[in-house]
Amino acid sequence: MSTTTDRPNKVHEGRNVKRFREMMGIKQEGLAASLGEDWSQKKISVLESKEKIEDALLAEIAKILKVPEEAIRNFDEETAIYNIQNNYEGANTGTGSLGQYNNCTVNFADKVFELVDELKKLHAEKEALYERLLKAQENK
Fold first, then answer.
1. Are 105 and 95 within 8 A, CB to CB?
2. Residue 48's closest CA among 79, 77, 19?
3. Of 19, 29, 95, 126, which is least packed with CB atoms within 10 Å of its CB?
4. Could you list the mean pLDDT of each consecutive 10-residue stretch along the chain, which spans 140 residues?
């Protein structure tokens, strides 16, 4: 049986930037403003279509999004879906080589909700920063 680990690594860094940006509730314009004057919404759109992003730029984006660079480099949606589908409570029938049932002591739903709350707070901070940037641009 083939699993996602049997396939070659097909990570698309630009798509991952988009996913993390959207999870943070940041628009392309907001990311562009955080990256500096040379950036625009259109340039972010082009960046998100790239399979590979330069190391220095990826480091800067990761810092802005407050996620580890490795998260952007290594996130693979198919692997995540596979893991979610096969690791939820009740998926393990306990018919392993020793017939043991592995109980999970971490409530992943609670962890997800904690992360969502943290992302909401970060989004509010980013939105306030973006508004200040817009006001500063208007005052120039």
1. no
2. 19
3. 95
4. 50 91 92 94 95 94 92 80 70 50 65 85 89 88
